Every structure is written in C-alpha cells, then in structure tokens.
Amino acid sequence: MAHQTLRFESVNVGDELQAFSVPITVPLIAGGAIATRDYFPGHHDRDAARGLGSPHIFMNILTTNGLVQSFVEGWAGPGARLMDLKIRLGAPNYPGDTMKFSGSVTEKNAATRSVQVTLKGANSMGSHVSGTVQVALP
Fold first, then answer.
1. 2 falls within a domain
2. 1 lies in a domain?
3. Among 25, 28, 91, 97, which residue's Cβ finds the most Cβ atoms within 10 Å?
4. pLDDT tens across 102-135, in order?
5. pLDDT at 28 over 60
6. Domain range holding 55?
7. What is the pLDDT of residue 3?
8. How many domains does the chain have?
C-alpha cells in the first residue's frame, strides 16, 4: 500500500495495483454491519442466517464498499480524493474465507487529473465484488 500519494503524471493505464487480501472474520462482518447501522440478523446472528438458508452470517454491501475504498485509497495514498465508486456484488463473503483484491488503472482523465481503477475482490466461491473507482490525484 502507498505511504505517499501518487502523482497523476506517474500513473499509467495498465498499471496494476498491489494485490490485497482480507481475512473474512465474524468480527469484521458483524462489526461492519453494526458500524453501518445495518441490523439485519443475517449479518450478525448465525442462527438467523441459517434460517435464511445461509451457512453462516454474511458481509453487507456497506462493509464491502468500505473495503473497496480502502484498497484503492491504500494504493493511491492519503492525498488522493475519491470521486466515484460503482460496485456489483457476487458470491457472499462468509467467515473463514479470504477475499483477494486485484485491480488496474483502466482510464486516465487529464481534465480532472483522475484515474479509473477497475477491480475485483474474489473469495473461494468466485467474485464477491467487481467495479470501478474514479480517484483524483494531485
């Protein structure tokens, strides 16, 4: 992850972001749900999740959204500014799995000094999240 902010001029279409793995744990899922005020039982109550046909509690979209943002901002650095984020969910994230992020720069916009990152986060069942993030760089 970046410790300094990337400069617009130093980033090129095709640049790969450093892979990033996130262990999926009960505290991450339940804490993310509570922090985002999502009290749906499937995100913190294993018995309720099983009652819904799920093998365990599962991650909510807002936690996934935050992890996507962390992945991109960790690459771009603290002086970068998130402009837009669009994601699509796929396979659920369950405790005991690992989500592995990958991504690359797919567009550069000189007028806004921004780049688009296309990314995915996959777990053992396949793609959990895919999408794009537009981030402005100094």
1. no
2. no
3. 97
4. 999 999 999 999 999 999 999 999 999 999 999 9
5. yes
6. 8-136
7. 74
8. 1
Q: Among 138, 131, 136, 135, which residue's Cα sits nearest to residue 64? A: 131
The CATH number of residue 63's host domain is 3.10.129.10
For the chain, what is the radius of gyration of the CA atoms? 16
Does residue 126 lie in a domain region? yes
User: How close are the terminal C-alpha atoms of the chain, in Å?
Assistant: 17
Q: Which residues contact 12 (CB under 8 A, 6 or more apart)?
A: 105, 108
- Evaluate the CA torsion angle 94, 97, 98, 99 in order and state its sign: negative
DSSP string of 15-81? Answer: PBPPPEEEE--HHHHHHHHHHTT---GGGT-HHHHHHTT-SS----HHHHHHHHHHHHHHHH-TT-E
